[in-house]
Amino acid sequence: MMLCFDEYPFNAVDSLVLSQLSYLRIGKVFDKLKTIQDKVLIKDLYKAEHFEGMLYNVWSPEDNKELLLAVAASPRFRDIQIDDYINTVDETSEKQFSAMTFYLSSRLVYLAFRGTDATLIGWKEDFNMSFTMPVPSQDEALNYLNKVAVNEQLDIILGGHSKGGNLAVYATMFAKDSIKKRIIAVYSHDGPGFSKEVINSQTYQSITHLINKTIPQSSFIGLLLENQNHYEVVKSGSFWFYQHDPFSWEIKDNDFVYVDKLTNAAKYTNKTINEWLNTATKEERELFIDTLYQVIKASDAKTIYDFKKDIIQEGKNILAAINDVDDKTKKFVMQTIKELVTLSLKNLVPTIPKKVINHDT
Predict the structure, then answer these.
(1) pLDDT of residue 361
(2) Mean predicted confidence (pLDDT) in 185-189
(3) Which of 221, 231, 240, 264 has CB atoms 3.0–4.6 Å from 351's, for a disulfide?
(4) What's the count of helices (H) and strands (E) in the chain, helices before strands?
């Protein structure tokens, strides 16, 4: 039996559960329930008529439905109140932001920031983090924290999966001192990191004791711009990029199953990408990412799932868009890809076990 938070303290698994719930598109359900009752509880969401809307364009809809059933039936989660739901997507400012607040008790709240959803804008904003800070969602996260923290009686925990973890850390960094002193912990579940300049700043260093970062063995997203080793590695039942899916993370006795180190593949990919990010100028990173985004956008797809509907036609559109890029930019993009391949090959050898390298000698 799962105990309530007064009996068994909040932990990293609780954070991941609530972070995952933040991916649900509860807007219409939330607004409807708020017109007929004062509080919206987690258990109120589990109704068949809500499923289609809540699970629209959500990764692993069946897994999310099972999670919702589990928390709606759990004494630990079912009576948690949800409030302050927000969801905004703005193509003009390249912003995808969503968050909700879970009231764990009368004095403790968990602010869950949604990670990258299926929208192309969401992915573009993620990549924008490689050359600019703040991106619009980081500003939104700070504004959201300030709004919820108006109630001075509340202690605060922040967290999120993927980009949501980065937003939680960013909001904590730049929170007012009066708010920051009420923050108990910050959870980043495979969330991208920050530049060396940010990591070395006093603003970041002042909150490191609050940050709890977890990444899977073959992490990719969580190691982007990661300039430190203050994280715990979780065992995943999946492989490579698919380990980013929290449903693959293993749990035992109310905690994650941890392993000692990352896979060689994760170290290799992380070193290659981050070497490029650290050597390319801000302008080069911006041009590369903007060009790739414009090419993909030419496919007319709005979400990742749109590519699945007619992948052949979308592919043709992308190839046509590449041909439309001016020669100078096209040459730059190809040169950048060549540099990434070169770095990749350079970093490959150290990841191959010696017995494999030397098997002919």
Answers:
(1) 38
(2) 97
(3) 264
(4) 16, 11
- Dump pLDDT digits (tens) for 237-289: 888 778 889 999 999 988 999 999 888 888 877 777 777 777 778 788 778 77
Q: How far apart are CA 325 and CA 291, in angstroms?
A: 8
Q: Is the dihedral of CA 129, 131, 136, 142 positive or negative?
A: positive
Are 242 and 63 a contacting pair, CB within 8 Å?
Answer: no
CA dist., res. 236 & res. 248, Å (int): 5
Say whether 31 sits in a helix, a strand or coil. Answer: helix
Which is nearest to 40 in space by CA: 58, 60, 54? 54
Tokens at 189, concatenated: 């579940």
Q: How far is CA 120 from CA 8, 57, 217, 224, 359, in A?
A: 40, 12, 26, 19, 45
pTM (2 d.p.): 0.84
Q: Given the structure tokens 């009686």, which residue do they identify?
A: 153
Check the CA dihedral 74-40-4-177 and report its sign. positive
Alpha carbon distance 31, 132 (integer Å): 34
- Count the alpha carbons within 13 Å of 238 in the hemisphere toward its beta carbon: 13
Strands 258-259 and 211-216, bridge-based pairing: unpaired
Q: Are 256 and 249 contacting, i.e. CB atoms less than 8 angstroms apart?
A: yes
Q: 190 φ, ψ to 5°?
A: 55, 40
In 231-347, DSSP assigns E strands to 232-234, 251-252, 255-256, 258-259
- Answer for the pair 185, 140: CB distance below 8 angstroms, yes or no: no
CA-CA distance, 13 to 31, in Å (whole number)? 28
Among 27, 22, 162, which residue's Cα sits nearest to residue 80? 22
Question: With 70 as the cut, is the pLDDT of residue 9 above it?
Answer: yes
Per-residue pLDDT averaged across 89-100, rounded? 85
Give the range with max mean pLDDT: 31-40, 140-149, 297-306.
140-149
Among all chains, which residue has been given the structure tokens 């380990």? 243
Polymer length in residues for the chain? 361
